[in-house]
Design brief:
DNA polymerase, domain 1; Arc Repressor Mutant, subunit A; four-stranded antiparallel β-sheet; three-stranded mixed β-sheet; 7 strands; 8% strand; DNA-binding; SAM pointed domain-containing Ets transcription factor; sequence-specific DNA binding
Length: 356
Amino acid sequence: MTVYQLRQHQQPTPLTSTVEAMGSPGGDRMGSTVHLPLMSFSDYSHSGSALRAWEEEEDTKPPRGLISVPKHTVPERSLQGVFLPCFDMLLTENSSWLLKKSEAAPPVPPCKALEQCPVINSQSLGLGLGLPSGLEGQVEECCLEQVQSMVLGEVLKDIETACILLNITPDPMEWNCGNVQKWLLWTEHLYRLPQVGKVFQELSGKDLCSMTEEDFRQRSMQCGDLLYAHLDIWRSAACMKEPCTPGDNRLHGAEESWPKADSSCSGQPIHLWQFLRELLFKPHNYGHCIRWLNKEKGIFKIEDSASVSRLWGIRKNRPAMNYDKLSRSIRQYYKKGIIRKPDVSQRLVYQFVHPV
DNA sequence: TAGCAGGAAAATG
DNA sequence: CATTTTCCTGCTA
């Protein structure tokens, strides 16, 4: 079983990232966290139940590195000390903001985290829940399936979001060179990696997919393996949407169809005002960096100017984008009557002239 | 210091 | 060609 040690490339562990980002259904944003160790997506998705697979390897040490999933979406019972094998690509756009937050707190060393999160097995589940031994297997099976499908759903959602934001298709095989560069920028942004776009210049998605992990590492010692792992997740996800083997039913609860690459207007290059709208209508994902002050009047505030401009730069493949330039582009809309400053002018606050 | 306003010119699709 | 990017000067909170 391959284990990608993605965490070592990353910032201090974003253990609570997804949870904090999602909050809980009732609006309570005080989530708690289930810790998941690290595996590749293919290991997880292609093996039916990696949870079982891992259990079968009891003599092997669990992989290092942790990810988190929102507690409110996990069956309550499985929370009792569950430690699930999974992949590390649940980190959404949100989590990169939250990485910043968690930098302040001392990172949890992987080994310590492991101690805190005992490996799931019949003992921990059965005894922990005080269940008759006969039911252990069923409960375990049930929980694992639910968690598995929940995790898959999260990953597909994240990829979906990235596709909309980047205006690319979810299948790396269909990417042109520009798409590859966008994806690289995006991944670099997510994981705070050094920019390696140049090393992968002139490569199409097909080229990328034909490369081995070693090829990736040769092009970038620093983060080649991480990029390879990330690409592997996208490939696997695309494969699941259009099953490689007919009749293979791996999706369970996460069977939404992929959105069009650009939901708003396919073909046409996206305008900045459309992009801002897209972000504003995804408060779940981007509320940290841009939000409505008054949706009815179309008044919005850019909460994190650097992040919004970075996202815009990624979308337009303009790595040098910054808020100075982005705001200049916004000001071009004044004349055109698309965006203006609200009556009471405030820093970083703008208003759509024609609110939806 | 960061944001704002707008001129000017280059780049882009 | 329209739009955006880039660079700029000067102003303001």
